[in-house]
Specification:
Largest sheet of chain A: none
Low-confidence stretches of chain A: none
Distance between the termini of chain A: 49 Å
Mean pLDDT of chain B: 81
Structural class of chain B: mainly alpha
Distance between the termini of chain B: 36 Å
Oligomer: heterodimer
Radius of gyration of chain A: 20 Å
Number of helices of chain A: 3
Radius of gyration of chain B: 24 Å
CATH topology of chain A: Helix Hairpins
Helix content of chain B: 55-70%
Number of strands of chain B: 2
Largest sheet of chain B: 2 strands, antiparallel
Low-confidence stretches of chain B: none
Number of strands of chain A: 0
Order of helices and strands of chain A: HHH
Number of domains of chain B: 2
CATH class of chain A: Mainly Alpha
Order of helices and strands of chain B: HEEHHHHHHHH
Strand content of chain A: under 5%
Chain lengths: ~120, ~240
């Protein structure tokens, strides 16, 4: 029974940090620009999931007072959710802008491999 | 070699992350990590408590998250919209549209099948309507201007994918975008200049709690944001398509 509780206690955190690790690995190892951008997006999603799961309290609902039964005592803290909403939009803007830069790079060098682009070696 | 170094860095990172969140418990009233002499509690959180308790009185909006995003942090949302606008503008500058006059390239692309085209034509108004529903009901249900605008942009994306000669009028979309941005700033500034606070909500009647006409200017602002995000993202998708 103990391990079930452990898995329950950590599942969201493990998932969120797993996504962040996979994203970091992709950013460090991959040479394809699109894959690097996917890695950055995974980090973004992982951080968002971590923030939302940190704010969750078992047995409490979303902070939307749509019926008389819901009162401030049995809803969760709305601040992490509002902040994540902002973070998602900014992440979208960053992704769109970097994709356009990638398109321009591809048009110039005819490749997406950063090890083949002269100025971007490491 | 690069993979080994990356794995080592990630292992070190994992070790420190594990030690930090070891005590955290998912879904508990307290976060679980022990500080000097007590555990960090989630119950006592002054800002969130204030928002939850005074939301009905101050904003009359059923969705607390919406009232935080639009009302309490309205200035922040203006900045957010500006970031999105800057990204769309920068994208338009980087991807200068190259108009190809020759029709050979367009005809060489394979046309989508009749099933895809017909389904897209039937689904387009429904998806558009769903997006409008999501941003009109932003103060009552989960969702809002950003989400509704994104749904509208996906409807246009579907039309771009199924009709290779589907064109949008860039002038109209740019005008909608600029006009809604201007209206948002004007509404905010009316409150700032006339009443001393940015985005004063009760310029129009506050209405009945938990009904469509409630929460003063919150639905108005979210409808404007919905139009702005929808037209912006549609233009973004279109400039990607033109450059392919």
């Amino acid at each position: 029974m103990n391990w079930i509780e452990t898995v329950y206690n950590y599942s969201y955190f493990v998932g969120a940090f797993g996504l962040i690790m996979i994203g970091l690995y992709a950013v460090m190892v991959k040479t394809n620009l699109i894959k690097i951008l996917i890695g950055i997006n995974l980090i973004d999603v992982g951080v968002n999931i971590f923030l939302v799961s940190l704010g969750y309290i078992k047995g409490k609902g979303a902070p939307i007072f749509s019926s008389a039964k819901i009162n401030p005592a049995n809803v969760i803290d709305p601040i992490p959710q509002a902040l994540v909403l902002t973070a998602i939009v900014i992440g979208l803007a960053v992704t769109a802008l970097s994709l356009s830069v990638i398109i321009k790079l591809y048009g110039h060098y005819k490749t997406l491999d950063i090890s083949k682009i002269r100025e971007m070696r490491w | 070699m690069k993979k080994i170094i990356a794995t080592l860095i990630l292992l070190v990172f994992t070790f420190y992350v594990y030690n930090t969140i070891k005590g955290f418990k998912f879904g508990h009233d307290f976060i679980g990590a022990k500080t000097q002499n007590k555990t960090i509690s989630k119950k006592i959180e002054p800002a969130g408590k204030h928002y939850l308790e005074n939301n009905k009185l101050e904003n009359n909006s059923a969705n607390v998250i919406t009232s935080i995003v639009v009302s309490y942090r309205g200035f922040d949302t203006l900045g957010e919209v500006t970031v999105l606008f800057l990204a769309a503008t920068g994208l338009g500058v980087i991807l200068t549209i190259v108009r190809k006059e020759d029709d050979d390239e367009e005809s060489s692309e394979r046309e989508p099948s009749l099933i895809v085209k017909t389904a897209a034509r039937i689904l387009f108004p429904l998806i558009f309507l769903f997006g409008v529903y999501v941003f009109i009901h932003g103060h009552l249900t989960p969702g809002g201007g950003f989400q509704g605008g994104t749904i509208i942009a996906t409807a246009y994306l579907m039309m771009f994918l199924s009709y290779s000669n589907f064109k949008i009028n860039h002038t109209i979309f740019k005008s909608i975008e600029s006009l809604s941005g201007l209206t948002f700033i004007t509404i905010g500034l009316v409150g700032l200049l006339g009443f001393g606070m940015f985005l004063k909500l009760d310029l129009i009647p506050m209405g009945v709690f938990n009904s469509l006409f409630s929460a003063g200017l919150i639905p108005v602002v979210y409808i404007i944001v919905g139009f702005k995000v929808g037209s912006e993202l549609t233009a973004v998708v279109d400039s990607y398509r033109e450059n392919w």
